[in-house]
Amino acid sequence: MSVGAWHAFWLVVRRELCLSFRRPEQLLQPLVFFLIVTTLFPLGLNLQLSLLRDMAPGVLWVAALLASLLSLDSLFKSDADDGTLEQLALSGQSLLLIVTAKTCAHWLVTGVALVLVSPLVAIALNIPGFAFATMMASLTMGTLTLSWLGAIGAGLTIGLRRSNVLLSLIVLPLAMPLLIFGAAATDRAISQIGAAGALYFLAALCVFTCTLAPFAAGAALRITLE
Amino acid sequence: MNIASAGLEFEKIHVWRGDRHVLQGVSAHVRPRELLHISGPNGTGKTTLLRVVCGLLRPEQGSVRWLGRSIATYRSEYQAALAYASHEPALKGDLTALENLRFAVGLKRRITVDELLAALHRTGVGTCADLPARVLSAGQRRRVAMARVLAMNASVWLLDEPYTNLDASGADLLSGLLQAHVEAGGLALVVAHQELKLACGIGRLELNS
After folding, report:
1. Short-list A81, A71, A77, A61, CA closest to A23
2. Domains plus CATH for chain B?
3. Which residues have a Cβ under 8 Å from the Cβ of B196 and sit 6 or more positions away?
4. Is A150:A105 a contact under the CB 8 Å cutoff?
5. For B167-187, b where at least 16 C-beta lie within 10 A, e where not — what string?
6. Which percentage of chain A shows pLDDT scores above 70?
7. Distance from CA of A93 to the nearest CA of B (A)
8. Best residue in B103, B109, B111 to probe A by mutation, most A CBs within 10 Å?
């Protein structure tokens, strides 16, 4: 009996989650990085509280981008190294589906986790409570988009050694619009002027990436498998 | 289905790796109930040939046909009928042997845990089902990989040096499994350095540099 696409999708997602939770230290690394980097800024800059609040959105977003980049390197690499990627590619399921499942799982364990700890960071950065909802919404879309951009980069850099620097060089320029609109949305929420415009832009970027990046990442994977 | 189009056929496969002409027009036709033993010195493209045949690598020239149809256009059906074992066992160290099988075979066909356990028992690693793959020995991992091939219930087996790391009883077991597979109407391409001691008909393909 053949396996339906949904069943296969959930199987790959479950496999990824299972693997992530067997290595909790790798799961926690981006989160701890996020917490530490955002704590370093107020410590190092000796800012006044009002100045800190002005800088907070930028600091928060840069730290979130870098933290989710940390774990992107291993998105396909560990599977490529031990040969399981070939098994996935030959499973009869499309690479598109496998890439989508793996990226969704990656977002669940890094992106969603970052969003969930972001209020903690926001308190440290003196972001007022009424801006939390906008901040978390923008981070949700931002991390999802970044996971997809990263999937393209990770697919292209599988075969290379020390690929994480190159991966950052590929992904970070593409992530600039995210940073601009994400930080703007948070900033506007803090100043209590309408953040909707920036959020719409972010949502558009997110939809754009989520619909097209699977094809690009699948193609990247097909090229590097050869 | 007529006899001429049955089975797996590859014709005049040419592959360049950089400026090395690795495969220079390799052809063969493997029918059901046949086994093709691919041998040759190191670096003559045996693994490359298997990767071409399973569709992971596109040859610069030549074609691979399954049941008379090109595998490039017939991809998902072909892959559903295919079990490939690379020279790495392709197991996740953090997952148990059983989980490894469940996630790999589960993408190919619906399968119950009992069937997977039966496959593990058949290759002699039933007692390791709940151990993480990283604590298994190289030979045990090879047996788990073999159980994965069995559980896939595929008609085409592509095995890359399956005898590596196996002890004498493991090698006998593998030969028995290959024989049973071929007798049941399957076909197999096996890359191996040693002679295959099987009662069934063995085709030979010797690659030279």
Report:
1. A71
2. 1-81+155-209 (3.40.50.300), 90-153 (no CATH)
3. B35, B37, B175, B178, B190, B202
4. no
5. eeebbebbbebbbebbeeebb
6. 99
7. 7
8. B103
Q: Is A1 on the interface with B (CB under 8 A)?
A: yes
The arithmetic mean of pLDDT across residues B126-155, rounded, is 92
Residues of A in contact with B99 (CB under 8 A): 15, 18
Q: How many other C-beta atoms lie within 10 A of the C-beta of residue A164?
A: 17
Element (H, E) at B157: strand B156-160
Nearest to B146 by CA among B84, B203, B96: B84
Residue of A nearest to B75 (CA): A92
In the predicted model, is pLDDT for residue B75 greater than 90?
no
pLDDT at B209: 67
Q: What is the pLDDT of residue A112?
A: 93
A56-73: per-residue pLDDT in tens? 899 999 999 999 888 888
Query: Does the pTM of the predicted model rise above 0.80?
Result: yes
Q: DSSP string spanning B62-89?
A: EEEEETTEETTTSHHHHHHTEEEE-SS-
DSSP-derived 3-state class of residue B200? coil
Q: Does any CB of chain B come closer than 8 Å to the CB of residue A24?
A: no
The answer to whether A222 faces chain B, any CB pair under 8 Å, is no
Q: Kindly compute the dihedral angle of the four CA atoms of residues B111, B116, B119, B124, in this order, to the nearest 10 degrees.
A: 170
B90 lies within 8 A of chain A by CB: yes
Closest in A86, A93, A226 to B107, CB measured: A93
Using only C-alpha atoms, chain A has a radius of gyration, in whole angstroms, of 18
Q: Give the C-alpha separation, A14 to A8, whole Å.
A: 10
Which residue of A lies nearest to B112 if distances are taken between CA atoms? A1
Please give the residue of chain A at the shortest CA–CA distance from B80.
Answer: A92
Q: Determine the distance from the C-alpha atom of residue B1 to the mean position of all C-alpha atoms in its chain, rounded to a whole number.
A: 24
Pure H helices in A46-162: 49-72, 74-82, 84-89, 95-106, 112-124, 132-156
Please indicate whether, in this complex, the C-beta atoms of B107 and A89 are within 8 angstroms of each other. Answer: no
Could you tell me if A97 and A21 are in contact, meaning their C-beta atoms sit under 8 angstroms apart?
no
CB contact under 8 A, B108 and A91: yes
* Chain mean pLDDT for chain B: 88
Burial of A176 (0-12, 13-18, 19+ CB in 10 A): exposed
Report yes or no: B58 at the A interface, CB cutoff 8 Å: yes
Is pLDDT above 60 for B137? Answer: yes
- Cα dist from B156 to A124, A166, B178, whole Å: 60, 39, 11
How long is chain A? 226
Q: Do the chains contact at B104 and A23, CB–CB below 8 Å? A: no
